[in-house]
Design a protein that fits this description.
This protein is of the alpha+beta class. The protein folds into three domains: 327 residues, Beta-Lactamase (2-Layer Sandwich), CATH 3.30.450; 38 residues; 186 residues, Histidine kinase-like ATPase, C-terminal domain (Heat Shock Protein 90). It has 18 helices and 18 strands. It has a six-stranded antiparallel sheet with strand order 3-2-1-6-5-4, with helices on both faces. A five-stranded antiparallel sheet has the order 8-7-11-10-9. It has a five-stranded mixed sheet with strand order 13-15-16-18-17. The longest helix has 58 residues. The relative contact order is 0.07. This is histidine kinase. It is a multi-pass membrane protein. Its EC number is 2.7.13.3.
Length: 600
């Protein structure tokens, strides 16, 4: 009901519905009719082509077996008849028979024939491979020989998987080969009495080669089956289909006069076609997924679908071009205003014409431009203010320390302690060289540690009796970038407010680590006098204030260090980072500096 109301209440919706119905509905009807006709045409052509392939394959196999069966003419050779009829050995007959076999091979070029064997009813035989031999068992016990005695004019084609196949009579075993045996009787000329048998062993690859070379679709194949539907010879492609072959009622398909069948009993439909081999009595069976032989029809269906979709797109495009020509400028202006309201100040209206909507769009563009200019100006001013604040904060750290250091150098010079003067001057020089850092705000952690060591070297010379320090930093952290002069103010606080008022010598220890793969923690720990609970609470509160606490008369330059470092870290890295202070009165203080480890 809501859809119907929207269509009937909007002119644009009515036009869109009309365009879609008038354009797409006829095309869909024509497409369905075309697809139906093309499907039938493609299917019939594919079926005929597949049947032709099966017939051609059967013809090829018939030709091979017809040519091979010419070797059965050896039964008429007088030497063969004499050898099989006689009970005595005759080397002359044997040599003549073998020469005759060789001449047949040279004449007809039987590449697939592996061996020719002849044997009489008493087990005396001759073969190409072994020559004359004598069997110890009764030949007629084999059901094939027994059948030929009853039907002397028949010729048997015995496949490799026949349960009563003929074992090699001459005792020779084929390795890695399957054979097809062609068996026929040898009869006496006058009485036509069966006096023996001739067996031609043929390599089954001459049939498999035909099956492997003939392709149906992409995954279809041909194989050879007997009249009962049992698979006799399978191509290599059919190796994974043995279970399918066992489950199909091929015999009923072979008996079908139409010789083709679409099977939908298991999974996807498959097209099956058969063709008889007249020479062997076998059947050529072809199997292919139905989807593959009607693939062209599916291509036509896809083309029809694409055509319909393109027609719909064209209809919608035409609808918007015709029905929204007048409202388009207003809609564009509305969209740009929504973008500007969401914070995207790059939105700009491009309108043509000289009407009121164009004037409104130009006014909107001017307004957005002025807002963007004011924001850019405000951002620049804030950046300059931030830089000025940082420089002022950093400048508050140095003066007292420099004054005291120079005073210590003067005192050492007056005391003629030249080595210590040189050491302190070198440390002071390195300290200020790193502090300047060519105007850079970030330096490597290795340089920051070097700066701190210079500072501690100077302070240790001044406060030798109260100061020891330890820096335990893994070298793998040296390459991380850090805001310069981060550690020195914290260490200065530890010295002046922790160790200076402690009895005996104190220790400042600096360590660092990576936390959770994202945060870089630097820990400054001292064993000084610590901070009272009230003072610690006030200190933490001051760190949260946006302004710097006022300097008191009894504080040295280090009094500002903690707050200044905290502000600088938050200005550069964000509100999630900064300085954390933990302390126990009388035991010491721990300051943890947290910054991101992937900055810069």
């Amino acid at each position: 009901m809501d859809i119907y109301r929207k269509i009937t209440s909007s002119l644009r919706a009515k036009l869109l519905t009309m365009f879609v119905i008038l354009t797409c509905l006829p095309l869909i009807i024509v497409g369905l009719i075309s697809y139906h006709k093309s499907y039938n045409t493609v299917f019939n052509n594919s079926k005929a082509a597949t049947m032709m392939l099966a017939t051609q394959l059967a013809t090829n196999i018939d030709n091979v077996f017809t040519d091979t069966k010419k070797l059965l003419e050896l039964e008429k050779n007088p030497n063969v008849l004499h050898f099989l009829f006689s009970q005595t050995d005759s080397n002359l007959d044997a040599r003549e028979i073998l020469q005759t076999m060789s001449s047949y091979r040279q004449t007809y070029q039987y590449d697939g024939v592996l061996n020719i064997t002849m044997i009489n009813l008493y087990g005396r035989g001759i073969s190409e491979r072994k020559g004359v031999f004598q069997l110890s068992k009764n030949v007629l016990r084999n059901p094939h020989f027994e059948y030929l005695i009853q039907n002397p004019e028949a010729v048997l084609n015995i496949p490799p998987n026949d349960p009563s196949s003929i074992d090699p009579l001459d005792g020779f075993q084929y390795k890695n080969r399957n054979i097809i045996s062609i068996v026929s009787t040898v009869k006496q000329r006058v009485t036509h009495e069966v006096i023996g048998f001739i067996i031609i062993d043929v390599d089954d690859n001459i049939v498999k080669t035909f099956s492997d070379n003939v392709i149906i679709g992409k995954s279809g194949f041909f194989y050879v089956a007997d009249n009962k539907g049992n698979a006799i010879l399978l191509p290599s492609k059919a190796a994974n289909h043995t279970k399918w072959l066992e489950n199909k009622n091929i015999a009923s398909i072979i008996e079908n006069k139409n010789k083709d069948y679409v099977d939908s009993s298991e999974g996807k439909p498959e097209f099956i076609v058969t063709s008889p081999s007249m020479s062997t009595g076998w059947n050529i069976v072809g199997v292919v997924p139905l989807q593959e032989i009607v693939e062209e029809a599916n291509s036509i269906r896809q083309l029809i679908i694409i055509s319909v979709m393109l027609s719909i797109i064209f209809a919608i495009t035409l609808h918007f071009f015709v029905s929204t020509r007048l409202t388009r400028p207003v809609r564009i202006l509305k969209n740009k205003m929504q973008l500007a309201a969401s914070g995207f100040l790059e939105a700009k209206v491009v309108l043509t014409g000289t009407d009121e909507i164009s004037d409104l769009g130009n006014s909107f563009n001017i307004m957005i431009g002025k807002i963007r200019m004011l924001l850019d100006q405000s951002i620049k001013e804030q950046q300059e203010i931030k830089k000025s604040e940082l420089r002022a904060l950093q400048a508050q750290i140095n003066p007292h320390f420099l004054y005291n250091t120079l005073d210590s150098i003067l005192w050492l010079a007056q005391s003629e302690k030249k080595d210590q003067v040189v050491q302190m001057v070198m440390a002071l020089s390195k300290l200020f060289r790193i502090s300047l850092s060519k105007g850079k705000d970030w330096i490597t952690f290795e340089k920051e540690i070097e700066h701190l060591q210079s500072y501690l070297t100077i302070q240790q010379m001044r406060y030798r009796d109260i100061l020891d320090y330890e820096i335990a930093i893994d070298s793998s952290l040296h390459s991380l970038l850090i805001l310069k002069m981060t550690l020195q103010p914290i260490v200065e606080n530890a010295l002046y407010h922790g160790l200076k008022n402690k009895r005996g010598k104190g220790l400042i220890r600096i360590t660092a680590k990576i936390e959770d793969g994202h945060n870089f923690l630097i820990v400054v720990e001292d064993n000084g006098k610590g901070i009272t609970e009230d003072r610690l609470h006030q200190l933490r509160k001051d760190l949260m204030e946006p302004h710097t606490p006022k300097e008191t008369g009894n504080e040295v330059s280090g009094g500002f260090g903690l707050h200044n470092v905290h502000r600088r870290i938050r200005l550069y890295y964000g509100e999630a980072y900064g300085v954390q202070v933990d302390s126990i009165e009388g035991e010491g203080t721990i300051v943890i500096i947290r910054i991101p480890c992937d900055w810069g």
